[in-house]
Amino acid sequence: MTPIRPIALTLLLLLIAASCFGLEIRLRELVLAKGDMVTLGEVAELDASAGRLADLRLLTSPAPGQEHVVSVDRIKTDLLQRAPDLGEILWSGASSVKIRRDSMVVDQPVIEEILADYLHANRGFLPQARISFKALRFPPTFFLPRGPLTTEVLPSDPQILNSRRFSIIFRIDGVTVENLSIRGELEAIAPVVVAATELSRGGVLSSRDLNLVEMNIVGLRNPCFELDELVGKKLKRSLRQGVPLDRGTVEFPPMVARGELVAIILRHGSMELTARGEARQDGQSGETIRVRNNASQRDILGRVAAPGIIEVEY
Questions:
Q1: Do 118 and 95 lie in a common domain?
Q2: E-only strand ranges, 95-209
Q3: Dihedral of CA 285/286/287/292: which sign?
Q4: Which ranges of the chain have pLDDT less than 70?
């Protein structure tokens, strides 16, 4: 004979007790369901003698944020299917139960906050500017199940600033429950050095030739933010009044010189490795140059991030 497990024996004894003395089930009018299934203890108030019957799973919950109404007949049928040995039951309370699924609302303000938090967390990789995301269109409001929520934001461009789309992955208890994509663009407002007048190629810049003007720097290549770093430099090409100056417009000493020993920072997602190498080309800030990895003796392409530092995404 197969032995009866303690849990099964306890439920059996409760069913026997219920059949002997009767069980009163008082239905509630409104239930806020927590999980995918609704239990007997959620839809009804039970006598203390019911014990573990409260954990009996009766009905499938609505989708997060939705609700439906269940009649007492449906509850009786489902209960008897799952516990056919129950004896006499005294039914009381509501004649039907409205079941509403507990949920978290995800609307435009929530999405804006997620993106703002992401930009704040990555401010070290972004220019010193007032940065905001302007969506072309936000998705309709939707609902997620209750639980520990984490989000992951993926920009369409690893450099972030030039991204035209952001994907947001929503996870509850580590399980992906929603994945949405939002099209738009970043706006980064910062004071930028522009030509104060018509400037000719070969001219040496003075403070009178330059102005600081606030503008959106998205799409600008290596804009200059400090007047002092340009004064005394020679122009490589002519500029019209109001045109922003970038670091390629004037003659700068290279930030990284050919033959210089550099640190190569290799990034892949959240993983980061550092190697030693040698610059094979001169490079200004933000330019992509060839650099040789000393360990592998292979040439790779990397972006000049700072003096002596080359960043590589792979």
A1: no
A2: 96-101, 103-106, 130-135, 142-145, 149-155, 165-172, 175-195
A3: positive
A4: 1-22, 49
Buried b (16+ CB within 10 A) or exposed e, 279-290: bbbbbbebbebb
Q: Give the domain CATH number at 31.
A: 2.60.480.10
121 & 151 share domain: yes
Residues 6+ apart with CB under 8 A from 142: 65, 106, 178
Distance CA 227, CA 251 (A): 15
Of the three residues 66, 101, 136, the one that is the final residue of a domain is 101
Three-state DSSP class for residue 111 = helix
Quick one: DSSP state of residue 2? P
Confidence (pLDDT) at 18: 43
pLDDT of the residue at 270: 76
Output the pTM of the full model. 0.61
3-state class percentages of the chain: helix first, strand second, coil last, to nearest 5:
20, 45, 35
Final residue belonging to a domain, choices 162, 188, 214 = 188
The domain in which residue 56 lies consists of 6-101
Domain check: are 95 and 110 in the same one?
Answer: no
Count up the domains in the chain and report the number.
3
- Contacts (Cβ under 8 Å, ≥6 apart) of 79: 25, 40, 56, 58, 86, 89
> What's the CA gap between 255 and 283, in Å, rounded?
6
For residues 212 and 259, give the distance between their C-alpha atoms in angstroms, rounded to a whole number.
Answer: 35
Domain-located, residue 231: no
